[in-house]
């Protein structure tokens, strides 16, 4: 096969101003990250939340950190306790925090200190429709996203829902950092294609680190 890339991982692929994919940035830590996800989910299990519109999300979610994001019939919100279990979220593992801070700095956002990590789990056919992340208080802070397990097609659009989108495959270990002028771009994940990943089995996991409060 034609090898268009023969350098060493990780490598950066710009998406738009303020948005970059750092390919394979978390590859070597994949197994340790998946172990930490399992530990968090033992304390706060993955659950399919209900949207304010009354739909059950196909993506299963949990959180770790000082605050967590969730959805229920009353709306989307960040909170210090899970509205379902009434417990604080599990602590953010040091490995997660360090990865998020380092990746943000590499992408041009030094000093990023996340207080929230949303963990999404996709089974085959699970998807995330186009949305903006705008529930965070300081939109000057970037978001760091880490993909693990099965690959998925990520849609990266404009500032209106109807704008055309770029489609990029996100694979195990890829990290996306975005902020600045791209912070409010619409984005989503197309329905996951079934497969088996050697470390994550039938699933894709995504960690998104945010400064929410
Ligand atoms: C996902 N990611 O990759 C969904 N949001 O499963 C997101 O919705 C996302 O990757 C904000 C910033 C980066 C992201
Ligand atoms: Fe998002």
UniProtKB/TrEMBL annotation:
Claim: Translocase is one of the keywords in the record: no
EC numbers: 1.14.11.33
InterPro entries registered for this protein in UniProt: Alkb, AlkB-like, AlkB-like_sf, Oxoglu/Fe-dep_dioxygenase_dom
Cofactor(s) listed in the protein's UniProt record: Fe(2+)
Keywords: Dioxygenase, Iron, Metal-binding, Oxidoreductase
Domain Fe2OG dioxygenase residues, every copy: 113-213
One term of GO molecular function: broad specificity oxidative DNA demethylase activity
Superkingdom of the organism of origin: Bacteria
Protein name, per record: DNA oxidative demethylase AlkB
UniProt organism field: Candidatus Pantoea multigeneris
Name of encoding gene: alkB
């Amino acid at each position: 096969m034609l090898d268009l890339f023969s350098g060493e991982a990780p490598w950066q692929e710009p998406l738009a101003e303020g948005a970059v994919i750092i390919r394979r940035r978390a590859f070597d830590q994949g197994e340790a990250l998946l172990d930490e996800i399992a530990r968090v989910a033992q304390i706060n299990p993955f659950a399919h939340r209900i949207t304010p519109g009354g739909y059950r999300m196909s993506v299963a979610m949990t959180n770790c950190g000082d605050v967590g994001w969730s959805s229920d019939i009353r709306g989307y919100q960040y909170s210090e306790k899970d509205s379902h279990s009434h417990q604080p979220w599990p602590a953010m593992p040091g490995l997660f925090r360090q990865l998020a801070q380092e990746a943000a700095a590499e992408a041009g956002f030094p000093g990023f200190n996340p207080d929230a990590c949303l963990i999404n789990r996709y089974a085959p056919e699970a998807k995330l429709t186009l949305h903006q992340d705008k529930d965070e208080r300081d939109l000057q802070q970037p978001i760091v996203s880490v993909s693990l397990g099965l690959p998925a097609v990520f849609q990266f659009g404009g500032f209106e829902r109807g704008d055309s989108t770029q489609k990029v495959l996100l694979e195990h270990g890829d990290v996306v950092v975005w902020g600045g002028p791209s912070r409010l771009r619409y984005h989503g994940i197309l329905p996951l294609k079934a497969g088996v990943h050697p470390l994550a089995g039938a699933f894709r996991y995504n960690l998104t680190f945010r400064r929410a409060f």
